[in-house]
Amino acid sequence: MDLEERFGATRFDIRAALAELALRQTVEHVPNRGFRVATPDRQRIRDMLAVRALLEVEAALTALPQLDAAALRLLEAKADAFDRAVAEGTPASQSATNLDFHDTLYGFSPNRALVEVATETRDRARLWPLVLWPSMQSLRRSAEGHREILAALRAGDAARVAASVRSHILGSAANQPVEEG
Q1: CA 172 to CA 78: how far, in whole Å?
Q2: Which of 1, 30, 31 is nearest to 14 (CA)?
Q3: Which of 84, 87, 139, 164 could form a disulfide with 148 if both were Cys (CB 3.0 to 4.6 A apart)?
Q4: What pLDDT is stored for residue 155 in this prediction?
Q5: Residue 69: how many CB atoms within 10 A of its CB?
């Protein structure tokens, strides 16, 4: 009822949203108590990231033959936008420009089903609606990852594209839950 009042939503809408969050394992239902924020299952997160890397590498590789000079300039502009967001933006703008870089790259893939599944997997694997990098250093590493991907794309080197996309996803601090100590 608190959520209904706070968001001006119907009970049906709130239950549907909570059910979706439960499917994403962001919240968990506790019988006779309601919902609570779920404790992340670190192994599941690692497994989802491995699947995500497979899909996004393939999306980048299928996009590679489609990239002409104009497409590379567009991707450069998207990387520049992320760089600006890193330097002076909000977490929301950092997340949005990061996603825009990846979505633009994968948008050149002729395999629409692959791109849809890769995007759905990415969105399911994210712990929060906004990806929050734990430090400025990790944000800068992510920006460098975009530059490495771009360099590989410019070179037309499929093995380098695959390695740079895989490294960018699996090595990003934004994708790794902080270990409790």
Answers
A1: 18
A2: 1
A3: 164
A4: 98
A5: 8
Query: pLDDT below 50 — which residues of the chain?
Result: 130, 179-181
The secondary structure element, H or E, covering residue 53 is: helix 42-63
Give the C-alpha separation, 105 to 59, whole Å.
Answer: 8
Q: What is the pLDDT of residue 179?
A: 47
Tens-digit pLDDT profile for residues 114-124: 999 999 888 87
Q: How far apart are CA 101 and CA 9, in angstroms?
A: 33
User: How many Cα atoms occupy the beta-carbon half-sphere of 41 within 13 Å?
Assistant: 10
Span between the terminal Cα atoms of the chain, in Å: 36
Q: Based on the number of CB atoms within 10 Å of its own CB, is 163 exposed (0-12), middle (13-18) or buried (19 or more)?
A: middle
Cα 147 from Cα 78, distance rounded (Å): 11
* Max CA pair span of the chain: 59
Return phi, psi of residue 148, to 5°. Answer: -65, -40
What pLDDT was estimated at residue 36?
78
